[in-house]
Amino acid sequence: MAPSIDFTDPQFIEDPYPGLAELRAEGTPVWSEELGMFLAATHRDANEVLRTRTLGRILQPKTPPDEWDTFNYLHSDSLLDSEPPKHTRLRSLVTKAFNPRRIEQLRPVVADIVSRLLDEMDDHESSGDADLIEHFAEPLPVKVIASLLGFPEEDEHLLRPWSQAIVKMYEVAPDEATRAEARKAADEFAAYVEGLMAERKIHPGEDLVSELAAVEDGGDRLSARELIATCVLLLNAGHEASVNGFGNGMVAMLRREDQASVLRKDPDRYAATAVEEFVRFDAPLHLFERTATADTEIGGVQVAQGQKIAALLGSANRDESVFDRPDEMDITRDPNPHIGFGAGIHFCIGAPLARMEMQTALPLLMKRFPRIELASEPVSRGTFVLRGYATVPVSLS
Q1: Which residue of the set 2, 97, 165, 237 is catalytic?
Q2: Catalytic (active site) residue 176
């Protein structure tokens, strides 16, 4: 049995790492009665959970089906919640369009977006209300993915609220208001992408929606629902990791002047290792659950067919047996074998884009505002699974 931890307790959410260290100290996966699943807290066990083929993303559709139809297919027809052979087929088709060449082509686009956001941050500094999340970390990936998908700029403001409403369903015990907001967001988001997809089939462009609609493999194409689910997943997963990874890391670094000073002195040199440490030190995603499709042993514990087990990514990234001084931030850490983006067949397809965004944005931010510091205490989003900040007030000069 797991040590007694309330995953909804505000004190635990504020700083989950002492509680996660207790789970790691057990040495093997432990059963959580509260969550109804095993918890793999060590790096070894969490990594094995992610890579073991008899542990799958087995979607449990929400009920009643007619109320949750759109929400359910946005998951069942996406890469995140499918398994081979469907996952293999979807990933093959998606990666034909969403590939390293396309991501690298976005680098100047990202730099331009960053530059414009930094100008706007400067304006907010003059008003005394500059917020690292609201004015930089949050709009950056939304604008990048909107550009990638060819969403009109005037509609960008719709995307983040839809995404946040949907991903709140991944938290522990969402209430009915959260569930209703998620259903509404799923319906609206899917309808929007469907309209965009129909327009691009008639008037294709150079955007990813047009390419996804045209891509094929041996005569196989994405269905309409699969294309919609892919676009929604790219926004939800792709930008949540960037917003929270960047925000969490910047807060941790700005609280540690020894680390901030290293980046202030040479932001280009340390941008890449800093981004990896951001993701390791205060993970944007903490829990990724799997279901046993056959009796499976993880870390000496038997997970029976049908039982669930979760990889605790934030805990794994603080494992004392893998990382030297795991509870200390070191933006020069190299190597850094964190699993913040997952592992195995479900390794985050948006990880290269998230890395490129953050590695481009971080040095530009630090060179533009080398004296940036926290202006007041950041406000947490109050969630555990997707961990991040709602507001991070900063002073820029």
Answers
A1: 237
A2: no
Residue 5 covered by a domain? no
Give me the domain span that covers residue 103: 10-395
- Asked if residue 4 is part of any domain, the answer here is no
Which tokens is 134 given? 């609201």
Task: Please give the tally of structural domains in the chain.
Answer: 1
* Cα distances (Å, whole numbers) of residue 297 to 22, 50, 277, 303, 315: 22, 13, 31, 6, 20
Q: Is 237 among the residues known to form the active site? A: yes
Rg of the chain on CA atoms, in Å? 21
Contact at 8 Å (CB) between 344 and 50? yes
Reply yes or no on whether 127 is catalytic. no
82 counts as catalytic: no
CATH number, domain with residue 329: 1.10.630.10
In tens, the pLDDT along 103-156 reads 999 999 999 999 999 999 999 988 888 999 999 999 999 999 889 989 998 998
Mean per-residue pLDDT pooled into runs of 10, the chain (397 residues) = 82 96 96 94 98 91 93 92 92 88 92 96 88 96 90 89 90 91 96 92 90 84 91 81 94 97 97 98 96 97 97 98 98 98 91 94 97 96 94 95
Distance of CA 339 to the CA centre of its chain: 12
Q: What is the 3-state secondary structure (H, E, C) of 48-96?
A: HHHHCCCEECCCCCCCCHHHHHHHHHHHHCCCCCCCCCHHHHHHHHHHH
